[in-house]
Design goal:
The chain is α+β, with helices and mostly antiparallel strands. It has helices at about 20-30, 35-40, 45-50, 55-60; strands at about 1-5, 15. It has a two-stranded antiparallel ribbon.
């Protein structure tokens, strides 16, 4: 399913094709379930994108490697 989210960092609209169903989205949006339980088949990066709109590239910009 093609999911579109706006990056909180860049303001850019991004799309990600996620292997999820309408039923999974409904379970998650009703509340009371953790995102990893609603979408166990997604990677952490995919779940982050679905929930917040942050892309892996956004995270790399926010937290560069070697930054301590």
């Amino acid at each position: 399913m093609l999911i579109t989210r706006r990056s909180p960092l860049t303001g850019k609209l991004n799309e990600m094709d996620l292997p999820i169903t309408d039923a999974q989205i409904e379970v998650y949006t009703r509340g009371g379930v953790l995102i990893q339980d609603a979408f166990p088949n997604l990677t952490p990066d995919q779940r982050e994108f679905f929930k917040t709109g942050y892309t892996p590239e956004d995270w790399a910009r926010l937290f560069p490697e070697g930054d301590e």
